[in-house]
Amino acid sequence: PGWLMYLTCAMELVLSAVVFSGRWTTLVSLIQIGLILGFTTILAIHDPWLLAHPFGVLSKNLPLLLLIFLLWKVPHSGWSPSSLWLLRIAAALPWFTEGLFPKILFPQEMEIAIVAGSGLSPIAPENFLQFIGAMQVGSAILALTLKSSALRIVLLLQALGLVLFPILVGYQIPNMWFHPFGPFFKNLPVFIATVEVWKRCK
């Protein structure tokens, strides 16, 4: 019902105001995690294909959950090695999920059309899409296994991709910027996580 959507939006605005105010309590974290899990479950049951959406409308919720947990954990225990590993996983997850599911296992016409329309594909768009997916999965694995300067190079390329991919897609599908599940805007916390890993990796 329409009233429920408006109520949900109002609650999200109030919650965001609380978060921006710096009042990051255990209760606020639990509410955020509960809402994300609840909406993700409901939407996945209603339309399972959303789990393999080309732009991660639901799969990007996984790193969001990890980042919310870290925002609660780090002020209590500092940047422990386990916290840094969770941050690395959060930054790598979108590359793995969006590379494997919508590009390699379940390629969809929308994304194939975007690749074709970009003019950047030297081979058949569907094959180039799978190549991009393999590169994304590979970058996720490298981001979790490399160290030092090699890791920083991978992270820099990923950060660049998080900026360029939405611009490329948004140029062809402008209304994606206003998608109700915000796949492009979910890139922002992933971008921040990537930069933070880049700063902390040695």
Write the topology of this structure.
Blueprint: H1 2-20, H2 26-46, H3 61-77, H4 81-105, H5 109-118, H6 125-145, H7 148-172, H8 187-200
Helix pairs in contact: 2-3, 3-4, 4-6, 4-8, 5-6, 6-7, 7-8
Describe the 3D structure.
- The protein is mainly alpha-helical and 202 residues long.
- It has one domain (47-200).
- Helix content is 75%, strand content 0%.
- The longest helix is centred in the middle third of the chain and has 25 residues, at 81-105.
- The model has no long low-confidence stretch (mean pLDDT 92).
Task: Give a quick precis of the structure.
The protein is mainly alpha-helical and 202 residues long.
Low-confidence stretches: none
**In the residues, how many domains can be counted?**
1
- Estimate the mean pLDDT confidence: 92
Radius of gyration: 18 Å
Order of helices and strands: HHHHHHHH
N- to C-terminal distance: 51 Å
Major sheet: size, sense and barrel closure?
none
What is the number of helical segments per DSSP (H or I, 4+ residues)?
8
